Amino acid sequence: MANRFQKSVPLMMILPGLALALAIIGYPIFDLAWTSMQDVSRFGKLTGFNGGENYHEVFADPLFWESLWRTGIWTFAVVGGTLAISMPVAMILNDDFHGRGLARVIIMLPWAISLTMTAVVWRWALNGRAGLLNATLMNAGIIDQPVEWLATASTAFVVEILVGILVSIPFTTTILLGGLSSMPQDAYEAAVVDGASGWDQFRHITLPLMKPFINIAIVLNVIYVFNSLPIIWVMTEGGPANGTDILVTYLYKLAFRFGQLGKAAAISLVMFFVLLAFTMLYVALVSRNDRDDAAPEEEIKA
């Protein structure tokens, strides 16, 4: 009896916090689900239950599927590009060199500025008539006439992806730098003695030991980037001609520009379940890979 009580003590201690977290997260989801099945006026008043009509209208709208596809491209490109740049940056900042502290501060500075302010600065810099980028390129003789960077959807979306990568680097670098700082140095010393090259050390020591930190960076960045509104909204508002809309800007337009709050609630719930499915699937795949990697070691020990 005493044993059973002792085992239940940890659960009892975390139960209040767990209940609070479930209430804080669960109530908005429930309210969102209920709103998504209602006719809602422009002022947020529920006028009647309509079943799944909002979902039917959303799924029948071509803009939803275009925005969903573009959201996938946006998320994959920004997260992938961020990781590809942040890893070498973190490895450089982890080395001992003169001015390392200042270099770390400079890398972290963009993180201290709000996304909205960053997007405003880039929108001005990319202005086709008086933008800083055009002026610089023309002075350098690279272009002979101004380029309208945000006038076409294809160019604007690529530029927004690059800005998204830029603002995501500080956060990701911080996570990876924390992982690199905890690396056992004796493993690298042994590798050097064995004649391992820098690439071999990265592939066989750094990368395997950094997997937990890389996984954290991927999951958190996917969540943040998938739901990111300021960059695209401030720079192009999803235009031109909805050509840079992602789900969150499409949702914002429906809710606050067209007053279709029921459809906006339906899209919000779809976005929640997409992220939930991704997180669960990714965690399951990582856990399975970890088990597969651990199996040979257990066989050797046996």
From TrEMBL:
It holds the Pfam family BPD_transp_1. It is a multi-pass membrane protein. It comes from the Bacteria. The chain crosses the membrane at residues 12-30, 73-93, 105-125, 156-177, 213-235, 264-285. Keywords: Cell membrane, Membrane, Transmembrane, Transmembrane helix, Transport. The keyword Transport applies. The keyword Metal-binding does not apply. Residues 68-282 form the ABC transmembrane type-1 domain. It is found in: Cell membrane. Its main location: membrane. InterPro entries: MetI-like (IPR000515), MetI-like_sf (IPR035906). Belongs to the binding-protein-dependent transport system permease family. This is Carbohydrate ABC transporter permease.
